[in-house]
Amino acid sequence: MSMAYEKIEEADLITAAVAGDKQAFGELYLRYVERIYNYCYYRTGNTQEAEDLTARVFMRALSHIENYDERGVPFSAWLYRIAHNLVANWHRDNNRRKVIPIDDFIVSRNLEEVPEVFTELQEEKEQLMDVIQSLPEERQQLLFLKFVEKLSNAEIGQIMNRTEGAIKSLYHRTLLALQDEMSARGIGPIRNSGISRRQNKK
Amino acid sequence: MSDFGMANSENLLSIYTDALLRGQTDLQSFLQEHNITFDSTLGRLVRLADYLYTMLPYVKPSPEFVESLYEELVGIEVSDSKDWFSQFQFERQLERQLERFRHLPRPMQLAAGLTITAGFFWIASRVRREGLLSGTNDQDNLEKSA
User: Between residues 99 and 138 of chain A, which touch chain B (CB distance below 8 Å)?
Assistant: First the structure.
């Protein structure tokens, strides 16, 4: 992997890639592969599918790079839009396979070093993913961009083609819906308090 | 949402989440600071954001995958990429200079344009004169040798 390209600014790399420099594109790939992989992984819940989709995202980006307009959306947002379209196609093609297991969920918190806690948390994560995947697609996308990619409302707005204020409202509505669904299924942090919106309504 | 109002609630939830993602806040102090009760609707949403932050970690693809896809994308080595890049950087610099020129006030643009044009004509006339001089010298030499 080229060392010289590492120090080059993104805008210059893009210009070079548009002009046909594959190594410049390779450097852009290295800068974004993890983020796109994360997006695909959380949207499919499967390592192999995530790898396959990630590869397709970058292949498509490479073949359409000459159409990329710097003044339109940032390069990252352009990549996410490609990923979003490919994941949407993937879901359409795999419509019947509704339940998506989260395989080999990467663990990162100390609690998970204890085997029993690990199993319990693994189950909880699978339940959470199941609830998230029951939400409308744009809400799933918003949650992953926010919590996994750690993007601001403005950045998410550029990817989802919405205003910052619209994302703020959508985020609020998404958490309300998620909380309702999680309370109904008895999972998540609200479960312990024994109070849910549905219970309150009764 | 009666306790805070929808817009305020949306704002506070976003403020908390952004601070959380930057690692700059903790739940208890945020709830206290904004006078949010633990079991209010907003309190529950803030706790849910905390929960999602813990449950959705960033994952890494395998290095083998990253490497093999890189090889596939980059493919064969691009020959003379160094030359290409130095030319590219020169053009980029030129573009930046032109961009800077475009943002100058009109009188300054005019002055710069006139200076450049005058300079160009001056150089051209010098080259022409020197060419003529060397031409006459050559003719003189020829006549002398004859």
Answer: 105-109, 124-125, 128
